[in-house]
């Protein structure tokens, strides 16, 4: 997205020390562009673009950095008042599977690793394990622990006497397959040639993720049945998927701000993020390792995502129409306070997470569907040994042109059949009214299809109204007390939950 | 966003006719990228990216095109089932002002043109003129007319006996100041040097737009008071702004799916579009005229916009989880039907509208605020002759750090004071429950502050529930009968409007 000339060595002023020091990587294109209009007569002054200057400077700095010095850039990024959901990861353990995992859409990982962290103690009966699942971009570091004392993304939620009580439960959290915080993903080396998979990484699904997690649970902890599987957002998908894949190996399921199948609006929002990222020339079709990463595309993708994570009313109260500096004239670069907030959120994330992981994990979310047809097709594909031809549909846009498209009603019936597989389980579904990424009707849908199946499971639905939380999709990270009470009651078997 | 090497002439196979014919503009970088992984051993096949191939090919074609042949590219773009809201414009008339217009934020246009079209006849009393206002990207072509027989964007809404009845009213529609369909905008030549303004164009506001329209109304039609000012989306802003600027020159006001001040969520959504567009290297800080335009950035910006124009429930019914071709494996390029729809919407728009116009007009929407403080500041700036220094806030993100930030309550009170200026007028506000870009609470806000002022105006509020329209923000283009009835009643003085 920046001018691509940043790697070119261009002439520099021999007398300028500043230029000299940075000359190796400085492009003069920016200066040329500025000069092109500075000398000519103009009815109004040329607008300035400090936001682009900043991105170009960053690009130049990254061009000069060796891979090892990139970490310094990460640490010197601006920080702000937002709760950080992802971390430069350390202190996790690794489960290494020498067995291959065959994937829902025909791919294979000949071997793989899953990063994980734990809190609390596994009891002697091995029946107190709670597996918590992360959202898209989070690591296994849900809470501080001796090997990584930084606060985790659910720091206040987990601990002795807390909503996930480490006095009672043994808590395990993994980095998902496809991620970049220790588990095998696109940035990992393909054992076939020792080079990063990049976009040779196979398409994965949420169900693939939980099947990898289950190998960890069995092999590292020798646990045959987990007490609960708990997660929010994509973690809410994983919670349901784990029960779906292994209904006899889960006692209770908690799915927060998730869904039982991704809906087109959520797919559309993730589509925009992927397309923006893939359009960054530095993305280079996924082969950017050892080069300048697509930090601009990542920043923009994160800005779009951030819009979907919160709610309008929160920003109304928090930012209103206030500008970052109302004494200055308006600008096309970030100007209103809400813009500088988004800019900051994007900037903070753009080097923290691997771009290819974002693409693959985001795609896995789109593909999530516990309907009968989708899961049957996946099982069939995994079982077959057919070599996959990984191409995309070249056909032009045509509405409902396929013979096997489903109407809304057919699709819902398909979901009912698929979900009946877990309708005998105890399942708590939590929804947040102010969530626009996973609107509450999607959580209601989970609860409704489970209840309608009438198979004896304790199906509970708990909704946080706009009067309780206006944090939107991020509520599970911010309104711990509001989501914690019904979850603790459900997990610990108390009655009287308002549902 | 594409590799920037497309203009380079690279070596080609001398024996290949295909290569030979296209060699002038073909980059081999794509082939290099593909080859880099095709020969090595890999656990899974490399993903393909036909969507990027297509963009690169388009870039190459545009590099080869002369400006005049660009029009052919526009005409050969795919077409689809969507109602087109913008057109390659022809058949409009021009109002040319030799007088300068001084702008709200200190800029000036030494002279300017406003493109307009009309339908119906101005009566002898000159009191039947209805001025309709466009949304962000529309032209003056609201309806077919002898000089342009193509359907307009409100074709079914305007005509003899229709909701805007040309038997009774003389309808005028303009292309907004800052646009690219005949009115003066960033693509126009700066009289100071005869070169396109580009980003030397001054920041404009919605109030600036209507002050330019008023010169047209006075000078071309000698009308001292318009019967009504009618518009949706940004047009709904203009409707209110026209009355605000000239309260004695408007009889009735209709504002559909608009607001009285832009709220942070809408600003955030437009911010993302602008940043994505400005990150396209072809944008070149606005100086792309005569070069390859930033078609990729425009496409992506339009895709994001399209997500905000419709509603989740509509897509649920229309696309569901259907894929464009379910026989193929999933892909990171457009794959689900909703993705191919967005891709198509972006593709259709990316060469139809000027990128700089999108930035400036989108920014004008952000700046819209009929609160007292904002309008007083604008009036002061216009009146002063101070030379503006066009810079953006370089300060880092900091929440509510300014001394003159307003709390939500202060801001609402400021709006009440500002809006009291038009509260004696007859004003119809229309909102659509499924709109996420301009949520109904923003239309309710308009009606509430006007009613609360209690100044004798006939203030009506009409809301279309989800049971009536799930077209979201686009409802005004698609549910003509639902929005038409209350508007016709209001304009023609009938009673009994459900409000």
TrEMBL record, chains A, B:
Belongs to the AB hydrolase superfamily. MetX family. SUPFAM superfamilies: alpha/beta-Hydrolases (SSF53474). This is AB hydrolase-1 domain-containing protein. Gene3D superfamilies: alpha/beta hydrolase (3.40.50.1820). It comes from [Candida] anglica. Residues 379-408 are annotated as: Disordered. PANTHER family: HOMOSERINE O-ACETYLTRANSFERASE, SERINE O-SUCCINYLTRANSFERASE. Residues 129-440 form the AB hydrolase-1 domain. It holds the Pfam family Abhydrolase_1. Signal peptide: none annotated.
